[in-house]
Each structure stands twice: as structure tokens, then as C-alpha cells.
Amino acid sequence: MSMALQRVCLAGTGSFLPNDPVPNDRIDDVLGQLSDAPPRVQQFVQTVGRRMLEAGGVKTRHFAVNPETHCLTHTLASLAEPAARQALEAAGMKPTELDLLLLSSPSYDAATPPTSTLLQERLGIDSCAEMEVHSNCAGVGKCVQIAYDALRLGRYRTALLVYPQLSSVYLRSCYFNPARITKSQAALRYILADGAGALVLKAAGGNGASPLPRQIIGTHVESVGGDRRPGMTAGGGVADAAGPHPPTQDVFERGSHHLDQDFAAVSRDAGPLLLAGVLRMLERLALAPRAVDHYIWSIPTLQLYDENRERFCKALSVGAERMRFHATHVGYCGGASILIHLDQMARSGELRSGQTVVLHSVESSKWMSAGFVVRW
Predict the structure, then answer these.
(1) Are 335 and 139 in contact (CB under 8 A)?
(2) Which top CATH class is 215-375?
(3) Tens of pLDDT along 353-364?
(4) Among 160, 215, 285, 217, which residue's Cα sits nearest to residue 10?
(5) Same fold, 8-203 and 215-375
(6) What 8-state DSSP symbol labels residue 86?
(7) Angle at Cα 85 formed by Cα 125 and Cα 92, nearest 5°?
(8) Would you list the domain boundaries of the chain?
(9) This prediction's pTM
């Protein structure tokens, strides 16, 4: 006889923002001035960069950087730990009660061992299942799907999902080959920020007639980038070590380790692809878009939000009040953003019992889309 699938509930949320908030006029001071960059880049920073900050809608953000020494103050594991502990506390759990630990990030503390195991050590967990998902903004949705399926099947009872975003690794002036830095690479200093978010999920018994509080309704993961050019790139991996020259020196000289963004592609494609992914997810879950009370997006700037707001509202048949721009005082923390926003909304009381919440991200690196739905 087959076993009934378990329902899965969101037992706790957590988030962490490192160090003091950084106002827009202090970004270059904290990350280090680009005084050795080519003149065209310095001119861009002084003109277009300032306009980007004004239109971006973010007033303060956080960096895991000492503003005096410009040294990193956190690793990915130490950035993830406070968010994880906060989520566990909200769930009324000790770290040792976890069955499954999932970590996702576009970076890692070391090529080996996995950062997920380093977080496991910091949490004092002697033994648990752990997995690490290498992904940017879509990483949260991917981890939720892995945990949701595993808990539904009864493989595990509890799961912790953590996403640390350490953008400043790529943004400090000391990271760049100043001769190779481009305007788009410099521009990312005015968009990205650091932070971490976490969730605790629990299996909560078989199907019942009445919904459970904070029940996960479903998940969605897809990649539509098979024939699309990458929208965000950062080298320094195996592909850059294939030649006959010393790879570290060669990578630096070419500047291939720089984080880069195709801003034209993001402006053109990110919004429509995010919307298409959400609509496909809702269709699969037989959930009417207008039945959703809150849409939490991975939208980095107010300008991009404004450019897509009318399209989103029309396609979903909802008002703009259901999809607010949340990054004003925290900045855009990549994949961690939707978890940070969810945690802040949960702790402020903005989310009320019975409301339906959609969290969804689009990742421009190779155009992936992932999200999940929770009934609060």
C-alpha cells in the first residue's frame, strides 16, 4: 500500500544584513575608489552611476566589508549562520533537530569542502543530510523544490534552506584588474548588496480537509536559456584554467574574473520571463493569479519595477499594492532578496493568516526561473 504524501509547512523565517547600512553617497568609499580605472569608466561612475542610484529606488544597502580596511567581514558560511539561527529560533528548533541542510549561492568559500558543510559545522550539527546548489537568483526556488519533494515523500521531516549573497566579493576595488574594468562591471557596484535569508520547512502529516498554517502549496523551477546568451557572467572557473598559461595570472590579466551584466538584455527580458514563469507556476497549481495576496519578486531596482508594473498588473489582474518594491532600505541581495523580504513581512505582521504568497525569481545568468507558493 502506498504511503500518503506529507504536507509541508514553513515553520520559520530568518534574515541577516551585515554591518551598518551604507547610504548611496558612501558606496565607493566602502568598496574602494576606482581611481585606477580607465577615464571612460571613471566618467561613467561620476555621471551615469549617480543617475542609476537616483533611479534605483534604494536609499541604503549593506556590505560585508570593513569601510576602513576594505577587508571582507564575513565568509559565505558566517553570513548564512545568523539567518539560519534566526529561522531555527522562529521554528522553535535546535540545529541538531535538522534532517536536511540546503545552501545555495553563486559563490563558495572554497572549491572544497562545500560551503554547506562549513555552515553545518558552524551550527554544531554532527550529522545531517546536506546539499549545495550553485545558482544565483533562482537558487532559493530550487532549494525549496528539493526540500518540498523530499519532505512530501517522507525522506526527511525537517529542512533548513539558506541563501547567502556576498556580492561585495566582486565589487571591491581590489578585486578588479583596473585596466580591464568596463562600465557595466562598475555599474554593478550601484545595484548589488550583501545579505542572507533562511527558511525552515517541516513535514506536517498527510492530506487533510483543512489547510495548515503556512502550508507550501507548490513549487516551480525552469530554465529557458538553452538558446539565449548569458545575461550575467563571472569567470575564474575550470574553463579559464584550460590554457597553457598560469591560470590565476592569466585570468587576472584578461579580467575574466570580473562579474559582468548585460543590462540591455535584463531590461528587455527579465520582466517578461519572470512574469511568464509565475503564470506557468500558477497554472500548474490551478491557482488564479487574482487569488494571490502578495507577490514577492526578485526585482533589483525601482526603475525596473516601474517599467514592468503595468504589464504585471494587467496579466495577473491585480493591483500594484500586491507587488510592492521591497529593496528600499536593504538593497538588492540577489537570490537572498525574496527570503529577506519574506522574513521582514512575516515579522512586521504584514502577512496575515489565510493569505496566499508567491515568491519568484528570475536569474539572468542563463535565464532560469524558480519560485514557490505558501498559504499563510
Answers:
(1) yes
(2) alpha beta
(3) 999 999 999 999
(4) 215
(5) yes
(6) H
(7) 90
(8) 8-203, 215-375
(9) 0.96
- pLDDT tens for each residue of 268-321: 999 999 999 999 999 999 999 999 999 999 899 999 999 999 999 999 999 999
Tell me the torsion sign for CA atoms 104, 371, 61, 376.
negative
Q: Topology of 8-203 in CATH?
A: Peroxisomal Thiolase; Chain A, domain 1 (3.40.47)
pLDDT at 187 over 50: yes
Q: How far apart, in Å, do the first and last CA atoms of the chain sit?
A: 32
- Which residue's entry shows cell 566589508? 65
d(CA 340, CA 313): 23
- DSSP-derived pairing of the beta strands 194-203 and 215-223: unpaired
Backbone angles phi, psi at 103, to 5 degrees: -130, 135
Grid coordinates in use for 360?
A: 519568484
Q: DSSP string covering 155-216, please?
A: S-SEEEEEEEEETHHHHSGGGS-TTT--HHHHHGGGTB-EEEEEEEEEE--S--SSPPTTEE
Dist. CA 292–CA 167, nearest whole Å: 31
- Angle formed at CA 216 by CA 211 and CA 221, multiple of 5 degrees: 145
Report the distance separating Cα 35 and Cα 69, nearest Å.
16
Q: Is 254 left (phi over 0), alpha (psi -120 to 50) or beta?
A: alpha
Nearest residue to 318 (alpha-carbon basis) of 356, 375, 271:
356
Looking at the chain, list the stretches that DSSP marks H as alpha helix, in order from N- to C-terminal side: 27-31, 39-46, 48-56, 76-91, 115-122, 139-152, 168-171, 183-187, 247-254, 263-265, 271-284, 302-316, 337-348
